[in-house]
Amino acid sequence: MFRLLRRRRQRGESSALLMFGSFGLLMACAIVAIGVPSSIMRARAVANLPQYRAADLPALAVGSQGLFQARIPTDAPTNAHDLALAYLRRKLHPNNPIFDEPLAEGEQGPPRDWVTVEQLPTETIFELDDGTLVTILIPNNTLLDNAEAVQYADAAEEFEYESRGYRPGQTITIEGFWDGNNTINAARLFNGTQAAYVTHTRGAIGGMAFGAFSCAGIALLMMLAGLYLRVRGR
């Protein structure tokens, strides 16, 4: 009886390992087939973008796409965490009594995952390398790369918060479009120079590939363990 129960348990464990291992291997293949080529195309596109300086902008045609380098003014107003350009998000704190309470079907309670509660401003002012002030338009879908994150909880431990953004005086690369009238429409912001931004996007290729092969390695180990338990349980 005990041997039969042990065999059934081993078969259950082997089935779970084979299932999760197969799923992980499929995910790794998808990353290699889709994610890595997308990262390569993205890195090439960024590397081919013109890198504009302040002296280039007066003659620049409206709608020109490229990389613009500017600086957050040192006297820019900041939030409580000394971030001059940031958004705020929050989620339920694990110590909140309602954290583990089940929700009824269709019911939406306080979020367990991060939800943005304060958006980035729709526009802000940066300084070019010659001291000229430019307006940066920031749509809701603007991405912040290489941003600093400050996490904290409220005193009652009801919510966790994360403020993510940039500090005064930091050099920021803006990937976007020239709108004329000293205005840049941003698509991405990056804490660093234009050259550093190009290097950053190239580095994402290696990170994507490493993640894929790591996932594949773990998946294969799970599948081998599942096969071992399956054979042993016969």
From the spread of the alpha carbons, the general shape counts as: flat
Give the end-to-end Cα distance, rounded to a whole number of Å: 15 Å
Largest sheet properties: 7 strands, mixed
Approximate helicity band: 25-40%
N-to-C series of helices and strands: HEEEEEEEEEEEH
**Classification by helices and strands:** alpha/beta
Strand percent estimate: 25-35%
| Tally of helical segments | 2
Low-confidence stretches: none
Mean of pLDDT: 82
Radius of gyration: 25 Å
Number of strands: 11
Could you name the key traits of this structure?
flat, alpha/beta, 2 helices, 234 residues, 7-stranded mixed sheet, 4-stranded antiparallel sheet
Please provide a written account of the structure.
The protein is flat, with a radius of gyration of 25 Å. Strands 1, 2, 5, 6, 7, 10 and 11 form a seven-stranded mixed β-sheet that branches. A four-stranded antiparallel β-sheet has the order 4-3-9-8, with no helix packed on it. The two termini are 15 Å apart. The model has no long low-confidence stretch (mean pLDDT 82). Helix 1 (2-47) runs antiparallel to helix 2. The chain has 234 residues and is α/β, with parallel strands linked by helices. The protein has two helices and eleven strands, in the order H-E-E-E-E-E-E-E-E-E-E-E-H.
